[in-house]
Amino acid sequence: MKSINEQISVAPQIRPEDLVEIAQSGFRSVICNRPDGEAADQPTFEEIEAAAKKLGLETRYQPIVAGKVSDEDAVMFGELMNALPKPVLAYCRTGTRSATLWSLAQAGDLPLADILQQTGSAGYDMAGVVRRIANGGKTPTETAEDARFDVVIVGGGAAGISAASSLLSRKSDLDIAIIDPADVHYYQPGWTMVGGGIFQAADTAKTMASLIPRGVHWIKSAVAAFEPKDNAVILDGCRVVKYGRLVVCPGLKLDWHSIEGLVDTLGKNGVTSNYRYDLAPYTWKLVQETQAGRAVFTQPPMPIKCAGAPQKAMYLSADHWLKAGHLGTIDIQFMNAGGALFGVKDYVPALMDYVKRYGASLNFFHNLIAIDGPARKATFEVNSPGQDPLKVDVEFDMIHVTPPQTAPDFIRVSPLADAAGWVDVDQATLRHKTFENIWSLGDVMNAPNAKTAAAARKQAPVVAENIVSDMKGHSATAQYDGYGSCPLTVERGKIVLAEFGYGGTLLPSFPRWLVDGTKPTRTAWLLKERILPPVYWRAMLRGKEWMAKPEKVSAA
């Protein structure tokens, strides 16, 4: 907690258990300026609010997308400051957004020098907002420039770091910057295994600093907006980064709030999700503790990261119950908002064998819309073709929830997005359809492929190859075939290795005699458990394109 003055302090992300110390320090109100779902290990505002209420603290939720502090946001923050009991503690991811809001809210009442001195004494440099205050909130991107790079990459996940490494492997003198505010990089494909008791959560996380390729600049900030006409990215605090080429790959937003009541009960009352780092261990705890009752597994409308992950959680849980002798007393329900078990029909027969083995009930066109954790009740909207929509309540003893997923807010409102909010690219070259010096890969772009880390592994070399070709004045030389892989963990020790491209075309990496992807095999399990994690950390993120060399564009 860093004091700006007697009335206001700011802080990085707080946790519910911190509220006792905050109250004891004399604070009477808390303002949350961080949107829920910004990071995988982030507590929700409702969790903070519940803990604060017990201590008599006032709370307000004013979520601000990183870097997108508008004039209206500052006015609202000023109104909250005037209305709330003081002193007030405001927080976001690092405290910068809260300090920025206060600075802009005070612009008409305090001299600029006083604002900078007070925030500076708290450890926050507001120099980037000076231009904003002096110019009425408008950043002159046509002339402003705080930094410039040959290539700017937005997003330091699997796609972003792999793209940077693949670029450097082709042109080592490139001046590259990765923009990402996160301190931790997660191997998200491992969270299914954490929820199944195979991996430890800590083994799926490394510091971002340890993974940024040598020679690449890491701008530890969030993106506020894109100004492609000026080849500029606007950062938190209104700093301007110019680029020669831009690569956009910030991943997806997990929309926990779109399910009523979900954020109030995550991590308790038998409600869990392998889509959050801190919750995957709770999945395994619930699986071990459940010996009877109803276990529900949900799948929202597409698109989502790894379309097979919701049923992977079901299979690994059921396999444990089978081996523990509890399967006969557990009612397994799979609630799928779609109309098929898996989107590529070649893999469905093998999966159906396991559905029957575990006695799981398949419920299609069932979309989770609300959850009451204490009552152990989930509400689904059922939209069966040709029938009127209806709502059904399902009781549960444990429920694994897959949250709906969208493009991040700063992508959806940007000039880069299509009508649905995804970055609009050519599905073969991954180049933006409107802005010729912009490319996109990973989960955020609109090519009709599976959103998996395996897809990003194939996309990164394509983007790198085509950017370097563009720099040489040539047209695209590499193309992406839509490859994606989904290792479906049907039991502990066996996997159905689904590998496919655009249109559901099967694209196996191995000869059928070694791995028949349409059937469960121990070889595929070995690949998932022992081989893919080190390939991810030591090869993919370092630009070593093992079995990922880009396909050349066919001559016309």
Short account of what is shown:
The protein has 556 residues and is an alpha/beta fold. It is built from 15 helices and 29 strands. The strands form eight sheets. Strands 6, 7, 10, 11, 12, 13 and 24 form a seven-stranded mixed sheet that branches.
Describe this structure in words.
It comes from Durusdinium trenchii. This is Mitochondrial. Residues 149-267 form the FAD/NAD(P)-binding domain. Pfam families: BLH_phosphatase, Pyr_redox_2. With 556 residues, the protein is an alpha/beta fold. The chain folds into 3 domains: 2-134, Alpha-Beta Complex (Protein-Tyrosine Phosphatase, Chain A), CATH 3.90.190.10; 147-252 and 407-552, FAD/NAD(P)-binding domain; 256-405, FAD/NAD(P)-binding domain, CATH 3.50.50.60. The protein is 28% helix and 23% strand. Strands 6, 7, 10, 11, 12, 13 and 24 form a 7-stranded mixed sheet that branches. Helix 3 (71-83) packs across helix 4 (96-105) and helix 7 (158-170) runs parallel beside helix 14 (453-471). The longest helix is centred in the C-terminal third of the chain and has 19 residues, at 453-471. It is globular and about 75 Å long. The model has no long low-confidence stretch (mean pLDDT 93).
